[in-house]
Amino acid sequence: MKLKKLVAGILAAITVFCMAAFAVGCTNNGNGGNSEPKPENPTVTSISIAPETAVLNLGETLDYSKYTITVKYTGEKEDETISLRETMISEDDKAKLSVAGDYDIIITAYGKTTTLKVTVKKLAMEGITAESVTETYSGKPVYPVVKGAPQGADITYTVYEGKVKGDKTVDAAVDVGEYFVEATVSARNYESTTVSANVTINKKAINGADLSWKNVNAVYTGEEVELAATVEGLPEGITLKGFSGTTKAKEKGVYSATAEFEGENKNYTISDYTFTWSILDSNDVRMEKWYAAKGGELYVAEFTSDSVVINGTSYPCTVTYDEAGKPVFAMGGGIAITSIALNGSVLVVTEGEDTLNFIVKTNLDNYYAG
Q1: Backbone angles phi, psi at 2, to 5 degrees
Q2: What whole-number distance in Å separates Cα of residue 43 and Cα of residue 76?
Q3: What is the per-residue pLDDT across 169-179, written as a single tens digit (0 to 9) for each?
C-alpha cells in the first residue's frame, strides 16, 4: 500500500514538472518570445545567376568563373553565393553552344533551376571574292566565279542588266550582253556576305559546216543544172539569202559555191559559207542517205564530196567510179572505218571486225512493203 502511494506521488510530480516546462516554452522558447521556432535544417527555396546573360563568339567556351549562383534558404539563414560549375549544365545544353543562335541554358543546383540566356554569335565570313567572267553564248546561265566560300555554303545570285547595278533584274545571265551580278554567300554559323562582279556574254559564231544541208547533189541530165541547196538549223532571224560562185553547171563533177545569209539574231552571228555541190548520176551512192540497224541502234550514213558522215561523225572518204561504173571508196588514214564497198544494193561498212550493212530508203520502204 505504501508502495502504490509512493509511485502515485512520483507520477504526479512528473506531470506537474512537464506542465510547468511546457508553459515556460510557450512564452520564451529561447527565441525572444516568438511563436515560430527557428528551424534547425533550413532548406533551399531558389537559386539565381548573375549575370543573367552571356555572349559568345562561335568556337568560344563559357567562362564559368565569371558567373555566380545565389542560393536562397528558408528562415533567417543568409543567402549563399557560389561559383557556376560545369556540372550544373547538362551535356545537351552545352552541345547547343557549338552552333550559332540564342539559347536558354538551364542551371541546376541544390535541386533548383535557373536560366542563363546565351547568344552565340556567327563567325564573320572573310576572304570571299567574285571574279568577272566573259563567255560565248551557250544558252545556259553564266555566273561570276566565287572563291573562298566555306564548304557547304549556299550562293544565291541577283542579276542586273548592264555593267552596274540598276533597277532592272533578270532571272539569269543567259542572252548576249553585259550584266552586274551580286552573289550572296550563306553558310551555317557564318554571317552572310555579298560580293559582286560582271558577266559578259558574246555572240556565238555559227559554222556553216555544222548546219544541215540538203540538195547539195543534183542528178545528171545532160542539161544545165542550177544549185538548189537548202539549209536547216539556222537561228531565228537569220535566213539563207542565196549563193554565189558556181551555182550552175552541166557536166558531172564537183563544184564550189558560197552561201550568203541575211538577218540578225541577238545571240548568234554567221558568215558566208563556202561548200561543194555535185552533179551525179542518178544511181551514184552519194545521191541518197543510207540506213542500217544493229543492236537495236539505227545508223544513218551520208556522203559529201570528201567524207562520209555516220550518225553525225565525219570520216575522210572520197568516191570515184571505175571503168565498169562501180564506186571506189578511198578512206583517209588513222580512222576507225577500214573499208567501204557496194555489194549490189547493199553498202558494206567495215570497222575492224564489225560490219554494218546499209541500204537506201527506197529499198527500205520496198522491204517493209513486202
Answers
A1: -65, -35
A2: 11
A3: 999 999 999 99
The answer to whether the Cα torsion of 365, 368, 369, 370 is positive or negative is: positive
Tell me the pLDDT tens digit for each residue of 270-288. Answer: 999 999 999 999 889 988 8
Cα(356)–Cα(62) distance, integer angstroms? 77
Strands 112-121 and 53-57: parallel
The helix/strand/coil state of 124 is coil
Q: Kindly state the helix (H) or strand (E) to which residue 112 belongs, with its residue range.
A: strand 112-121
The DSSP-derived string for 257-310 is: EEEEEEE--SSEEE--EEEEEEEE-TT-GGGS-EEEEETTEEEEEEE-SSEEEE
Enclosing H/E stretch for 7: helix 2-27
What gap in Å lies between CA 320 and CA 322, rounded to an integer?
Answer: 7
Report how far apart, in Å, the C-alpha atoms of 252 and of each of 204, 221, 237, 248, 286 are.
Answer: 37, 9, 36, 12, 13
For residue 129, how far is the Cα from the chain centroid? 19
C-alpha cell read off for 334: 588513222
Q: Which three cell numbers stand for residue 208?
A: 556553216
Burial status of residue 345 (CB atoms within 10 A of its CB: 0-12, 13-18, 19 or more): exposed
The residue among 281, 280, 273 whose CA lies nearest residue 256 is 273
DSSP secondary structure code for residue 96 in this structure: H
Q: Whole-prediction pTM value?
A: 0.67
